[in-house]
Amino acid sequence: MPSTLHKTRKQISKKRNGVVNALHEKSRDSLRLHKAGVRDQRLEKLAAARSKKEQPIVERVAFFQNGMREKGGGALELSVIQELISSFILQYVEEYSELKKSRHSNRPASAREDLLKLKVSALETEYKQGFVIPDLTTAESAAQLERWEGSWSYLTTLSWIKVTKGGQSRASELPSKGIN
């Protein structure tokens, strides 16, 4: 992804007539190469952290895109959307219960089990207050979600809503801080 090191190496090789491997340890060129390498590593680390933060949102949108396709591909009613939200939460509940059953008695919970327990409680709390999903109630926004190919940049064009457990829905924005 980052190409600073490659560009710097290319510039230095042009300056030295194609020879880059004969540099002094403290020379300007070796310091430039080191600085470029450190920059590339820093950019890769930041990109990985950003991707990790965005992953739950992408997984949520993919789940609702598949659910919409299974239900016919058009706009959905609020009751159908609530069923999809319940099934989204239920997938984590099932995984949590499987881990709990497979654990021997008198053993502490695994880290994965603890994380799933926290995730399920956070999802249920979010559902009570307003579960953020792409808008599936209008045909136009459902068609936009149908065209989504998995990229993060396209998610900003989608319209978003919050659906509560009580059955209300209101407009929302793309969750920029991440979900859970």
Question: Can you tell me about this structure?
Answer:
The chain has 180 residues and is mainly α. It has a domain of 112 residues: Up-down Bundle (de novo design (two linked rop proteins)). It contains six helices and three strands. It has a three-stranded antiparallel sheet with strand order 1-2-3. Strand 2 and strand 3 form a beta hairpin. Helix 1 packs antiparallel against helix 2 and helix 3 runs antiparallel to helix 4. The mean pLDDT is 85. One of its GO terms (cellular component) is nucleus. This is Translation machinery-associated protein 16.
Secondary structure blueprint with pairings:
Blueprint: H1 4-15, H2 28-70, H3 78-102, H4 111-129, E1 131-134, H5 139-147, H6 152-155, E2 160-163, E3 169-172
